[in-house]
Write a structure and sequence with these properties.
AzlD domain-containing protein; 119 residues; mainly alpha
Amino acid sequence: MNPTFTSIDAPWWPAVYILIAGFVANDIWRILGVVFSGRMREDSEIFGFVKAVATALVAGVIAELILFPGGSLARAPLWLRVGAAVIGFAAYRLGSNRILVGVVAGEVVFVIGWWLVVG
């Protein structure tokens, strides 16, 4: 029997299934990364490739959230989502490249804009 999301009729099963599936899909790669990272030099070509792919994936997720949001975020106008991202990035650069500064600035702009526009 292959366990599926609905194969066991117990209230705890969906949570266990999600935890197992999440581990297999995500954490196994983290473990492999830790195992193999000790053998890699930081200036190696493969490390540069992995870093570029990871950066591209994060940028893609951010772009999707801004340009094609789902749920409640879709109610915010595009200019507000883009503006909050731009101001967050500017704050990050002006704040000595501190991620927390950029995230907080973007969030503050978005929340205030949401409150003023969407209400």
